[in-house]
Amino acid sequence: MPVIRVLFLGDVVGQSGCRALFINLKSITKKIKADMVIVNGENAKEGFGLTAEIMTAFFKSGADVITSGNHIWQHKEIYPYLKSEDKLLRPENYIESLPGKGNCLISKKGIIMAVVNLQGRMFLSALRCPFKIGRETARRLSRETKIIIVDFHAESVDEKEALALYLDGQVSAVIGTHTHVQTADQRILPAGTGYLTDVGMVGPQNSVIGMNREIAIQRGLTQMPLKMDVVEKPAIIMGVLLEIDVQSGKTVAIKLISENSSM
């Protein structure tokens, strides 16, 4: 049974996350024999957003597709690249008049695959329905390939699980991003879709979702809206490795990745 191996890495947070990715991605990809790499890059620039320079460095380091989420709009310099760079995605369910798109096709080892980026609505902005847009997009892409991987950038666990079950059998995998905390519920759903509530982050350990823990503690103690800053600490690299059957498009294996950075 021929399979394609896809490495999906969680939100890259700040300088320490970027440095960990730049230094370690190629060696990790080689070690686990990944054929394609998806990276969520929406927190790369000091914890909020993405710049053209960092985007370019991601691709040079071995990322094949960069997904994002609600913070992709933080730095306007990235807007033209959302239009021009096919493998840089923003959530598909933002209004169509905004720059960029939320899906792409990519060929690896002669196999065409699709990546879809969606954003949840619970505790986030009231975007177009990710369920409806997700199904419509999957049906359209299924004319080109059976391998469709979804990054669902969402806050709510039940929204993530519900979308995955809604799309079960129509996409190869639904992988959650946004919370920066890796969950341990990786599984293959009844109709063959791989699922993980949240893939975690590539970012500083001993932090609060990559941010300075002292500020986070003070926010909790005082309820003051203190600005969160990325902490500069050794990073952890969190992700998931998917093995997808080339003929059926179903996930046949799903494995968590969690490694300390060499820097």
Any overview of this molecule?
With about 260 residues, the protein is an alpha/beta fold. It has a single domain (about 5-260), classed as Purple Acid Phosphatase, chain A, domain 2 (4-Layer Sandwich), CATH 3.60.21.10. Helices cover about 25% and strands about 30% of the residues. The chain is built from 6 helices and 13 strands. It has helices spanning about 15-30, 50-60, 80-85, 130-140, 155-165, 215-220; strands spanning about 5-10, 10, 35-40, 65, 105-110, 110-120, 150-155, 175, 185-190, 195, 200-205, 235-245, 250-260. Strands 1, 2, 3, 4, 11, 12 and 13 form a 7-stranded mixed sheet that branches. A hairpin with a 2-residue loop joins β5 (about 105-110) and β6 (about 110-120). α1 (about 15-30) runs parallel beside α2 (about 50-60). About 50% of the residues are buried. The model has no long low-confidence stretch (mean pLDDT about 95).
